[in-house]
Task: structure prediction
Amino acid sequence: MFWDKKIETFDRAALEQLQLQRLRKIVRRVAAHVPFYREKFAELGVRPKDIHTLDDLRRLPFTTSADLRANYPTGLLAVSYDDTLRLHTSSGTTGKPKALFFSRQDVENAAELCARSFVMTGVTKKDVFQNMMTYGMFTGALVTHYGAEKVGCLVIPAGPGNSERQLMLMQDFRTTFIHLTPSYALYLATFLEKHGVVPRRDLALRKAFVGAEPYTDETRRKIEESLGLDVYNSYGLSEMNGPGVAFECEHKHGMHVWEDHFLIEIINPATGEPVKNGEPGELVLTTLTREAMPLLRYRTRDITSIITKPCSCGRTHHRLNRITGRSDDMLIVRGVNIYPQQIERVLMAQSGVGRNYQISLEGLDEMTVKVELAEAGFEGQVEQLMKLQSQLAEKLRAEILVKPQVQLLPPGSLPVSDGKAKRVIDNRKL
Amino acid sequence: MNDVKIVAAFAENKPGQVAHFTKILAGANVNIRWLAVASTGPFGVMKFLVSDPEMAYQALKHDGFVAKLVDALAIEVPDKPGGLHAVADCLAKHNINLDNASGFIANNRAIMILEVPDVARASDVLQKQGFRVLSQKELPVFKQD
Result:
């Protein structure tokens, strides 16, 4: 199913022509209205009229999250303050957040892209949408909220947590699709199981849009099995409107990037040079239609690769593979690069342990992986638990090349966050 | 075969854990007659012999704990020198390993709680040798309350 079949199946040459037009326009606008970009252009000796082809994109400066913080709060605005309609912020772990402004057209476009993304998986106006993302400054909930309203769905702005109430709402209003983080999806599955609710039998759920934290295909399968629905991977970041940048179609094989609104590059994060087609690297996005706060070549820090092969759904927009990590999340332990997703993969494949985990780093590179014991992993004997721990430590060593300590904990001991789960506690004194 | 069910629960090795479990069991009106704690490093396993193992198991599970009902043997041994040795000797002769063992005296009767890999076989062997292998109902400790 299509929301806007014409643009979603646009001929590649025409799509690229449209991209070029929009790129040239946005470069002219930022040069005229945003001092930050004007100075960057001057440094690089590039003028708006030098952009003749899409390849000329590479002559333009990168924008980083540090640039967003440095220009907080209004430094990157390309419209007058009176023409802004909505403010979101992106959480900052240190110091100021990133301020992200939307114009009326930006709010409209973000909703449009979410509508496309929902309809692409078969959502119609008959569906009931329970939004379990955090409302407020975070883009995750509000942007999809507007998108589902655009489709005509009944929208229940539940927000995250309070699982008793989530269950009541799902039962009473026959919710058919939900939007949530992978960690909350896993928690909710455990909650329903504990309360004797069999989703396939007792609820009307059919789909879940899962995003805001990277997760693995193993996690997707666990969520699908335990909640009895189809999980669609979704990608977005507050700097790029939030959700709706790239979503999966019904084939669940890579996420279509809405290329009439975003230009994609995949670069080597160390050199800034493009990688070969299909190879993994850092995703760099340029907004093509943003009015209030256009961003050129924004370094997402997300590691992925691009699929340029045509998709059997008929959409011509290229796809992104699952995000395999954030260049920010990477840990270096005893000189080895480790992504938390590698650890997650091992834990998901191991029976007898739960779905939540935490990596703690102490002292001089001592790594402990904390994981919750599940009932299936308990035979009532201490010796058997010690064996389970050493088995897991060995499997982790095979995957990440560093042997961690494994610590089993009772279920519910590890924090489940509403937004982004805090997986890594680094207390090293190096 | 006669056997008894022990409730085993997984816990962190830190102060207050036993109290936490005993509170849950008290709330479920389950009477505890025997308790064993085995711990190693950051975690441990608590084992309870209780008046209603199924109820205790459900109560712990309901409160989010990982628990399991474990089969064990309750053997009544003569309360005199050599009484325990006769049991141990019988198991040794049949090459049966003891995973865990402990004992208590209740109402002037000596009871051994044994955890072995093959409960059915150990039960047979001991019964053939004339030992009293008690069922859950026969446990004397619960009759007097």
